[in-house]
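Tutorial handout. Part one gives the primary structure; part two gives the three-dimensional structure as tokens.
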Amino acid sequence: MDTVHLSQKHLAARWRVAEATLERWRSDGHGPQYLKIKGRVLYRLCEIQEFENASLTGAFNSKEKRTT
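Part two.
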């Protein structure tokens, strides 16, 4: 199975943020893991999805405790 990668431009569009935001997150050590190959930044789709899942909040988040 081939690994799917997104460019910084595509991830910025997916999350509706500026590319500069992703650059700042990388500089600050935030956001999903990424690859840097010959100066090009790529994000693995599986890493993006993992980061999104870890960022879930609210009633449907299975990590939060329910009180009934």
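Part three, for discussion. The CA atoms of residues 36 and 42 lie 6 Å apart. The mean pLDDT is 89.
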